[in-house]
Amino acid sequence: AADEDILIRATVFNRGPEDAPLHVLPTWWYRNTWSWGDTLDRPRQKPSLAQLEDDRLVAKHESLGEFQLIADVGPDGALPQWMFTENETNTWRFDDPQSKRPSCKDAFHLAVVEGIEGVVNPRPKGTKSAAHYQCVVPAGESVEFRLRMSATQILPVEAFGAGFDEVFAQRIEEADRFASSLVSPGLSDDEEQILRQANAGLLWTKQFYHYVIPRWLKNPRKGEDETPSPGLPNPRNADWGHLYNRNIISMPDKWEYPWYAAWDSAFHLIPFAKIDPFFAKEQAILFLREWYMHPNGQLPAYEWNFSDVNPPVHAWACWRVYQMTASNGDRDRNFLERVFQKLLLNFTWWVNRKDIRGKHVFSGGFLGLDNIGIFDRSKPLPTGGHLEQADGTAWMAFYCSSMLSIAFELADGNPAYEDMASKFFEHYVSIAEAMNSLDGTGLWDEEDGFYYDHLYLDDRSIPLKIRSIVGLIPLFTVDVLFDETIDKLPGFRKRMEWFLKSRPDLTRFMTYMERDQETADCGRRLLAIPTRERLLRMLRYLLDEDEFLSTFGIRSLSKYHEEHPFEYELNGEKLCVQYMPAESDSGLFGGNSNWRGPIWFPLNYLLIEALERYHLFYGKSLRVECPTRSGNYMDLQEVADEIRKRLSRLFLSQDDGDRPSYARTNVLLNDPHWRDLVLFYEYFDAETGRGLGASHQT
């Protein structure tokens, strides 16, 4: 086998109690670039598939070359029947009922499933072809199908000889060896299998994504600009005329969400940094390139509305990729400099567009959390005014801390970056000060001991007392600075010392370059939005099983709101946010997503990292009850490990063999052939652990 010699072996099992007929149609096709698009895409000559012999096709393409597609005999010893059609849209199913276009892309479905005659090409050629196998699979048995696709110049002498299975055995051994290289020491067999399936799912969800906005905005029939959405004054995504999506991208879930979301892609970079470091860096850079990033600095959010706003986690992801892909201490500074320069543009966009009052308190908007609030945060408020968001503001402090870490790294060896380190340090402090004291109290509620969104209306700031993960995001912003690093940067140190002396007012309500007595000799300083006293108050909520701490991780909304829903009256209508641990009862964002209770992994992951950074500073000097009121005290590393353990419980086989994420799914729970095939759901029922939403979101 070689790069252009692809061996295919498909095994189909009948897990049912009865014999079953089976149709298998391995299919080849050319992506249609000949009937649309500009001259860069269109081939001069249409590619073709044609039957060459009873067991094979020949495939010809002007740039890909010539291949032969070879089919082995099926389980009954007979060769398959070849079927041909054109990879063209069946227009009569859509906007042209009178269309008589023959041999369309759905011809095989029409012929085999619906039994319609005359829909496939009567001549053995086209741009789409299938080898149609038919057989009966006995109950409990399996059948195998073998095919091979080879460049004509390297055709094998014997397509399906002994060497065929030898190559498969070799590739399986290589895959096993690679999977083992990704396993951390000490994992159980079950944990190793879960990790391998998660990595495989992540690789599977990569997809060629082709969506060129200028072409989409142009009427393909008249060659003139038209509004794609009739009746609307402005076409969707019209402000993204520069956006040229034409890349292989990691999707949230190629099955249910075959389009990227900026912050999903950022989280994917973390595991990809271990699986495929080159791909992780390329993905990180891609969204910052000039044909993705808007000229004003915004990153595209997601297909439905690129102008919406996801949490700004790209800088954090780039920094983590840089740290994780170091080889023998040799880190890729070129990568880090490339992303830092472009992230500066994105940071500036955030500051200019989302800080409405110019007071370092941010509105943000949607921020990926769908229905978490009382209002649809992606739209103007029905009340007028604007939201001052605890998460939007904390995300910007988190952005600052990530950029500060990058600037410190780049300044080591290049003093030009010291000024940028000073800029992000001071910006972080300004955001933290505003979050804690703007209009007297900032977004902190002293009575409750929690951060809340505020509705700013008619020059008044009204707290919206919803105890959600929005109010915990300020914890994510914590950073530990090392004197050893600061001592290497005299310009930064001088500016920092002046700032500390000249602005003591900024330190009243935050942990501001604090030295802990037990860690003072370690040369560490803490930068965090809440003071230690406020941190402890927030942790009491976080670790309370009647509030945020679930058997399976951290809830997105406190269970307190199950019996005490938050209500807000608007124009005679009562709006309500109530704890719902599983599916949503709201149609917001399609209704197939819910942030009012369920467990969501990305924010749990960031919370665990934050607790570990707090522990790096406080060590054993800070211990808290976990769970709250249990009498069991843990340091913050132990708390992080406890949350990690609870999240892992979703997937791990329990003593009875069940996996909580499969709750109420009898086939997955009870069938020995299925129970160890783990799915990775979008979010999870906070009470039962049952997986919800998209099921391939690794």
Beta fraction? 15-25%
- Decide which structural class fits the backbone: alpha+beta
Query: What is the rounded distance between the termini?
Result: 31 Å
Helix content: 25-40%
- Rg from Cα: 29 Å
Q: Average pLDDT across residues?
A: 89
Low-confidence spans: pLDDT under 50, at least 5 residues?
Answer: 221-227
Overall body shape: globular
Give the strand line-up of the largest sheet: 1-10-6-5-4-8
Largest sheet features: 6 strands, antiparallel
The total number of structural domains is 3
The tally of strands reads 28
In DSSP terms (H or I, runs of 4 or more residues), the helix count works out at: 17
Main traits of this protein?
698 residues; alpha+beta; 3 domains; 17 helices; 28 strands; globular
List the helices and strands and how they pair.
Blueprint: E1 5-13, E2 20-24, E3 27-29, E4 48-53, E5 56-61, E6 65-71, E7 81-85, H1 107-112, E8 125-126, E9 128-137, E10 142-151, H2 162-181, H3 189-204, E11 206-212, H4 213-217, E12 244-250, H5 262-275, H6 277-286, H7 314-324, H8 333-354, E13 386-388, H9 390-411, H10 418-437, E14 444-445, E15 450-451, E16 453-457, E17 460-464, E18 479-482, H11 483-487, H12 490-502, E19 511-514, E20 524-528, H13 532-542, E21 549-550, E22 553-554, H14 560-563, E23 566-570, E24 573-577, H15 601-618, E25 623-625, E26 633-635, H16 636-648, H17 666-670, E27 683-684, E28 691-692
Antiparallel strand pairs: 1-10, 2-9, 3-9, 4-5, 4-8, 5-6, 6-10, 7-9, 11-12, 13-16, 14-15, 16-17, 18-20, 19-20, 21-22, 23-24, 25-26, 27-28
